[in-house]
Every structure is written in C-alpha cells, then in structure tokens.
Amino acid sequence: MKRFEQYQRHLETLKRAYQEDLENEFIISGVIDKFFIQFELGWKVLKQLLQYEGESIARSGSPREIIKAAYTCFDFMEEEMWLCMLQKRNDTTHIYNEEAARQLVEQILDSYIQEFDRMSSAVQTRYGKVLDKIP
Predict the structure, then answer these.
(1) Contact between 3 and 41 (Cβ < 8 Å)
(2) Which of 8, 24, 46, 48 is deepest in the core (most CB within 10 A)?
(3) pLDDT per residue over 71-125, tens digit each?
(4) For residues 105 and 49, what is the distance between their CA atoms, to the nearest angstrom?
(5) Run of H or E including 122
(6) How many CB atoms lie within 10 A of CB 46?
(7) Angle ∠(121,125,130) on CA atoms, nearest 5
(8) What is the largest CA-CA distance in the chain?
(9) CA nearest 32: which of 96, 82, 119?
(10) Is the pTM here over 0.85, yes or no?
(11) 117 CA to centre of own chain
(12) Where do the domains of the chain lie?
C-alpha cells in the first residue's frame, strides 16, 4: 500500500524532531507541519484498511467517522488519542500563540509520535505481506 509506505517514511522524518532545537520557532513550525501531514496520512491509511475490510463507511467517511469505525474494527486503535489528534490537527491552522505551538510540540513528542509508531507496528503485524496488495 503506497499510502502506508508514505506514512512510514513521514513518521521517520517526524521522529527526527527529538534531535532538533525546539527553541527555534522554524523547527517548532516544521514539527507541527509534519504532525499535520502524519495525521492526514494516518487517517487515510485507516480508511484504506477499512475499505479492504469491506466497511462501507470507508467510501465517504470524514476523518472523525473513519477514526470511530477504525476503533470498532482494529484492536490497535486508541480512539480518544486519535480524536484528540484530530482536534489538534484542526487547531493547527489557528495557532498564532507561541506558547500554544510549544505545547502542541510537547504533545507530539510525548504522545502522538508513539501513537503513530504503534499504529505502524500493528498494521505491519496484522496485514504483513498483504499490504502490497491493498490498493
């Protein structure tokens, strides 16, 4: 699955945030942008997996609907975490406050990257070689 490959590649880039100068406002902005992209790839991977599983919601579902459906279908899903990330993703377009941006970066580093990583491992474990066959 090409999107899952992108998800993994972007996750490795996002993980590099741990090694960056988080006092630099450009780095902070970059981490937030990478989080936005990672979240987008994440819910779209979930959507493709739901399609593969034959779930009808995957044809037209919003990110919130996809997350809720994925929670019922996949035991690796942390619904509250993903819904929180959805809210933060939505809020990223309105972050003008430096302190709010720093707090979001802390959440990304403390929780969200681990959740993205956990999903990556779980998808690989559950789907293995079938991933290449999922459109």
Answers:
(1) yes
(2) 46
(3) 999 999 999 999 999 999 988 766 778 888 999 999 999 999 999 999 999 999 9
(4) 28
(5) helix 113-127
(6) 25
(7) 120
(8) 46
(9) 96
(10) yes
(11) 9
(12) 2-133
